[in-house]
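Notebook B, p. 112. Complex prediction, attempt 2.
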Amino acid sequence: MAKTIGEPRNARSRRTCSAILNATRQVIETEGFETLTMAAVAQRAGVSRRAVYLHFTSRADLLSALLRHLGEAEELGQSLERVWAAPDAVSAVDEWARHLARAHPRILPIARAVEEVRRTDADAAELREAIMERWRKGCRRLATWLEDEGRLAIPWTVDAAADMMWALMSWDLLEGLTIERDWSQERYAEAMALLLRSTFVRQA
Amino acid sequence: MAKTIGEPRNARSRRTCSAILNATRQVIETEGFETLTMAAVAQRAGVSRRAVYLHFTSRADLLSALLRHLGEAEELGQSLERVWAAPDAVSAVDEWARHLARAHPRILPIARAVEEVRRTDADAAELREAIMERWRKGCRRLATWLEDEGRLAIPWTVDAAADMMWALMSWDLLEGLTIERDWSQERYAEAMALLLRSTFVRQA
DNA sequence: TAGTAACTTCACATCGTGTGTATTTGCTAA
DNA sequence: TTAGCAAATACACACGATGTGAAGTTACTA
């Protein structure tokens, strides 16, 4: 129940709106979300601070909008499709790891910012929950696929495996390896694929 | 380089100090760290807001002190000792999972709070880094042990396995399973043990 | 019981969020 | 081309949180 701000019908309005979104992303990616203030966003967007509030009701709203924006615009969906297009469950698991390595690093900083505001903002929490639900469904689908092909490792149940796979999508895990430990995307993808196979796939 | 506040030599001072630490913990655990204000802490501790600043230079300093306090006082070290007392590397891995399930849930909320302030506070960041370094060492010791007994799964190297084990200590992972997915400590311990064995232990 | 460290009270500076209001800019439709 | 109106600006303000300063009060301890 985001306090929606009516669709902008003006060309100027639309420009400003996306300028703000871009500015937000830039600020987060260059300076980190700890210094993300409405003033900083406004300045970067070349707009008054007050104008930001004409498009987004709050800081949390802005962040939510940005995350949603990325989820729609970016080629996130396409990255995921490769998973479901895999010939069998086991290669789908591999593709899943590659998908994570491909798609998640781009949204990591913004997702972190949303994680922070969700504790105090109901709308952000709702959005986050919706995303997590989708992810959980994806994991469940993967686990079910394995089960159907008789390749789900003992003693995992579909539910348990789905939960664990979902938890393994953790931002901490991704950040820890790719940023703190400086792993490349490829290395991360391979290690995750290996981990997932070893854990959830039963030898044929 | 924490701006240390001289050791309290007064009985009253010592009482106040630990009252503040307790209050902080209580506030975090009952209301969550998003509403953790200095005023709330002071009130809970039955002390003036100003007094808090006589013991801790800042909010971040207070949180760091609390985390350190828990690390020392709590039976965290003892929990870990069981790992190194294991008869062989493989059971050490099992013990490691149990250790995580035992020790980490208690410090989760405080650790979260520190994670948040470390982005803006150098001292908190330093403390956090020191802790992570210890953990990484622990993981490396575990991986080396496996290697020495010829039980490190291919194609893992000691370094890669250590990094991955360390990343798997992720707060997100713990929180996701035990809180969001409502897993019990036991279930978490078993699943982690299974995951670690499947991934890193080579069949004898 | 005197001296002093520790605590309280109250005031204040600073910064970030979010709102209110009057005014100006610039898109768009007649 | 211009009248009308949406969108943006400028400026002021309330609020809440952090952190500091300074004078007065309480309660350990020697």
